[in-house]
Specification:
283 residues, alpha/beta, Rossmann fold, eight-stranded mixed sheet, 15 helices, 8 strands
Length: 283
């Protein structure tokens, strides 16, 4: 691929019986372990995205399901906030959203309610206060500085027709409005191949980042996703490699390894998006 490799995220296997708090620490590794190799990898992504021309709106997606895109969105938002940048994350995956759970905030009201006129924008934007009154305690919030710069628009109630909402004039107007209020606007979009949502949103964004999990999805599927996005005029800035552990393919693509793993959609959706390579988990 002509586009650059932003970072390699090494696979992290969660222990069996892990509780929600521990799972959140894994998902938000850049906040809870800011000196870890993972956090450094996410800061490397930030450096790549902020070099050169200004890219205020960023869409993060993947070719297939369960490649870790939502984890990239969450951690990229955290490292931006830690750097003093005012950033808002939008849970534009209206099929299997996860940002509300990751940050421990209420899912509703959110994007769906705003786009349908059921709630005004201010009610739909969650910040550090919502995290405090949610499931994260004050010690979690104070683990590292910066979360006061991070805001989230959760998915809200899951709609029957996500494509209709995401392609609406209200969605376009929302992105333009948020650009005037925040340094960065990051959208977590569904995978490219199973559904059309990402292809609808991508042309409106300054930059698109593809997340590719080594060993789960074929490189052919990644290429198909790239071609499909470029076909609608998307500006792909680069690829984030996920699950680089013990992979000769990862070694050939990018020499630097970091730390993460995240699960996503159903097996049926995943297999429809690309050929899956069986992997063995330990721990």
């Amino acid at each position: 691929m002509k586009n650059g490799i932003f970072a390699g995220i090494k696979n992290y296997f969660k222990p069996k019986g892990e509780n929600i708090a521990e799972e959140r620490m894994v998902r938000l590794i850049s906040h809870f372990e800011p000196q870890s190799p993972a956090a450094e990898a996410y800061r490397s992504i930030l450096t790549n995205l902020t070099s050169g021309s200004v890219k205020k709106t960023i869409l993060v997606t993947s070719s297939a399901a369960r490649e870790g895109k939502s984890a990239v969105v969450a951690n990229l938002g955290v490292v931006m906030a830690q750097a003093g940048l005012k950033v808002i994350l939008i849970s534009a995956d209206l099929r299997r959203p996860s940002l509300a759970k990751t940050f421990g905030v209420d899912k509703e009201p959110g994007l769906n309610e705003f786009l349908t006129g059921a709630a005004d924008l201010e009610r739909c934007i969650k910040g550090v206060v919502d995290m405090i009154v949610g499931v994260m305690d004050i010690d979690d919030i104070r683990k590292t500085a910066g979360l006061e710069n991070l805001f989230i628009i959760t998915s809200g109630k899951l709609p029957i027709q996500p494509v209709k909402l995401l392609s609406s004039p209200q969605m376009k107007e929302l992105i333009e409005l948020l650009k005037t209020r925040f340094d960065f606007v990051i959208l977590d979009a569904p995978p490219v191949l199973p559904v059309t949502d990402a292809a609808i949103l991508a042309p409106r964004m300054d930059s698109v980042v593809l997340v590719y999990e080594i060993g789960r999805t074929s490189r052919e599927a990644l290429l198909r996703a790239k071609v499909q996005l470029e076909g609608v005029g998307a500006r792909i800035s680069g690829v984030v490699l996920n699950n680089t552990q013990a992979s000769s393919e990862a070694a050939s693509l990018y020499p630097y390894y970091s730390h993460y793993r995240y699960k996503y959609y159903s097996k049926a959706q995943e297999e429809s998006a690309g050929s899956k390579v069986k992997k063995t988990e330990s721990g």
